[in-house]
């Protein structure tokens, strides 16, 4: 099984509490996901994430194919990070770390996704052809959505 890692960073001109409040609310996931993915939460979710929280979705991550996806929030340190792991979904393995830390311009948000596509060698080929590019596209959209929400750090 091949494993890959995708990393993204973004500076956000807001305070830690504002950013944490936004990213730790499951209801905000739709705001930072491209509309063409048809992202819809299908489970009841609380206002804030907590360890053990199971979230189910319908989403079309690739080729417009509607997929059931279930993630579990496995770790949370309030105001600092949380981890979601796929329990049911399109990947053989999915582990997504969301970190925030104070930065002189506000907040530095870091994402680390470790994943393994399904289908062995076909998954490796799919990753080279489109999965890694799709992840970049999704996070580019998220970057713009967060700029609309919080503004942009001027370098």
Provide tags for this entry.
7-stranded antiparallel beta sheet, Alpha-D-Glucose-1,6-Bisphosphate, Chain A, domain 4, single chain, alpha+beta, 2 helices, 155 residues
Topology overview:
Blueprint: E1 4-12, H1 16-23, E2 40-41, E3 54-59, E4 67-77, E5 81-88, E6 93-103, E7 106-116, H2 120-150
Antiparallel strand pairs: 1-7, 2-3, 3-4, 4-5, 5-6, 6-7
CATH superfamily: START domain
Question: Judging from the principal axes of the Cα atoms, what is the shape?
Answer: globular
**CATH class annotation:** Alpha Beta
* Count of DSSP H/I helices: 2
> Which CATH architecture would you pick?
2-Layer Sandwich
Mean pLDDT across all amino acids: 94
Helix content range: 25-40%
How would you spell out the order of helices and strands?
EHEEEEEEH
Please summarize the sheet with the most strands. Answer: 7 strands, antiparallel
SS content category? alpha+beta
CATH topology: Alpha-D-Glucose-1,6-Bisphosphate, Chain A, domain 4
Radius of gyration: 15 Å
Can you tell me about this structure?
It is a single chain. The protein has helices at residues 16-23, 120-150, and strands spanning 4-12, 40-41, 54-59, 67-77, 81-88, 93-103, 106-116. It is of the alpha+beta class. It has a single domain, classed as Alpha-D-Glucose-1,6-Bisphosphate, Chain A, domain 4.
Give a brief outline of the structure:
By secondary structure, this protein is an alpha+beta fold. Helices cover 25% and strands 37% of the residues. It has helices at residues 16-23, 120-150, and strands at residues 4-12, 40-41, 54-59, 67-77, 81-88, 93-103, 106-116.
């Amino acid at each position: 099984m091949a494993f890959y890692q995708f990393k993204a960073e973004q500076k956000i001109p807001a305070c830690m509490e504002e950013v944490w409040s936004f990213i730790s609310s499951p209801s905000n996931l739709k705001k930072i996901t491209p509309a063409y993915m048809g992202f819809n939460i299908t489970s009841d979710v609380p206002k804030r994430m907590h360890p053990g929280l199971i979230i189910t979705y319908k989403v079309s991550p690739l080729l417009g194919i509607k997929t059931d996806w279930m993630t579990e929030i496995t770790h949370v340190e309030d105001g600092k990070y949380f981890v979601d792991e796929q329990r049911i979904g399109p990947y053989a393995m999915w582990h997504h770390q969301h970190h925030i830390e104070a930065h002189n311009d506000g907040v530095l948000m870091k994402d680390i996704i470790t994943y393994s596509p399904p289908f062995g060698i076909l998954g490796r080929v799919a990753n080279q052809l489109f999965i890694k590019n799709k992840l970049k596209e999704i996070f580019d959209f998220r970057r713009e959505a967060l700029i609309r929400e919080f503004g942009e750090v001027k370098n």
